[in-house]
Amino acid sequence: MYIVNGHILTMSQKQESVENAAACVEEYPVGNIRILQGKIAEIGDIPVRPGQKEQVLDVSGALVMPGLIEAHCHMGITEEKKGMEGDDCNETVNPVTPYLRAIDAIDSMDAAFDDAVRAGITSAMIGPGSSNVVGGQFAFVKTKGRRIDDLIVRAPAAMKVAFGENPKANYSGQGKSPVTRMSIASILRQELFEARGYLNKKEKALESGEYFEEDYQKECWIPVLKKQIPLKAHVHRADDILTAIRIAREYDLDMTLDHCSEGHLIAGELAAEGFPAIVGPDLASRSKIEVQNMAFKTVGILNKAGLMTAVTTDHPVSLIQSLPLCVGLAVKAGLPMVEGYRSMTIYPARICGVADRVGSLEVGKDADIAIFTGNPMEIFTETLYTIIDGKIVCGPLPEDGIGI
């Protein structure tokens, strides 16, 4: 397939002109993209010589950019319109459940997946909620398909941990810990302490050739301890953010700061630490005390302080299709326009550990592409096409269907 006559915004480091990009589509160079076997084969000022089975898709000056990425949500694991029957987000009987896997609960036929595709969102990080101190394993998946196994880009992709009000609220009524922030931190420390001891024993046994009996509930921590995947920390309040950092430093772990609602109050401290922030959902009510200071300005302040930042809807807290609008509101509140584009493409790809496949339009990467009538952050912009792995999943299909 060829995509021709589009204003191409690659989001790659090679496209220097994007640094001075304005909101209008005309700022981006017109070019073509060739897709072969689901990957980007050529891009830029290339000739169009379609093979016998290749379709030419003329987008007539529309904005062609990487598919948008949602860096933190519960799409398909908290299903819309299904109540208790479709809510598999929190196992609220045990505060430590690292062995739970999101892929066992994500329903890819949830209506939210179609909403995501129509908004140009081609991939998402999905996982358990924040009722437990340790919630389980997130997965990074594509947004179109019937079988979750076929959509996985990376699983496990992160380990969910939570601080603050949610674990407190869930367990204070059950007569067991945690009911304080001290207990939340202590429970997480103990779990990490035991997991590190388990890993040390396993490595020594393997070195000596001794028999070692694996523990299913501890094996899931090994990718975290080896820094193959990060902790995904639910943190809103400033003190919770700093507690998460304290523990990550104690155990030498990678981590993302998810929500980070009061991050703007400690931007300098966070910049010195260097953990990336996934900010939001700011398009929601201040429904609890720990989010009283949330605002669309947060992501811009953190970004300007030097943090890598992404914007999240936290679907279904805010609807998944509102992602580009949330980014637009962040731009309105001070986030530079180019950083707005990056916060829903290449930055979440890097934060989620999948930038080798998605997040920018570059030769060899997955052909996940969103084509818009203009800037997707503007309310009246329409999605013309959404393409995942080189297949049109939203938009008018070519008449002969070749290449679809």
Sum this structure up briefly.
With 404 residues, the protein is of the alpha/beta class.
Structure description:
The chain has twelve helices and 16 strands. The chain is of the alpha/beta class and 404 residues long. α4 runs parallel beside α7 (238-250). The strands form two sheets. Strands 1, 2, 3, 4, 5, 14, 15 and 16 form an eight-stranded mixed β-sheet that branches. It has an eight-stranded mixed β-sheet with strand order 6-7-8-9-10-11-12-13. Residues 16-25 and 400-404 have low confidence and may be disordered. The longest helix has 28 residues, at 181-208. β7 and β8 (134-142) form a beta hairpin.
Biggest sheet descriptor: 8 strands, mixed
Fraction in beta strands: 15-25%
* Beta strand count: 16
- Extract low-pLDDT stretches: 16-25, 400-404
Please tell me the overall pLDDT. Answer: 93
Report how far apart the termini are.
Answer: 8 Å
Order of helices and strands: EEEEEEHEEHEHHHHEHEHEHEHHHEEE
Tally of helical runs? 12
Helix content: 25-40%
Q: Tell me the structural class.
A: alpha/beta
* Shape type: globular
The protein's oligomeric status is single chain
Report the radius of gyration as a whole number of Å.
22 Å
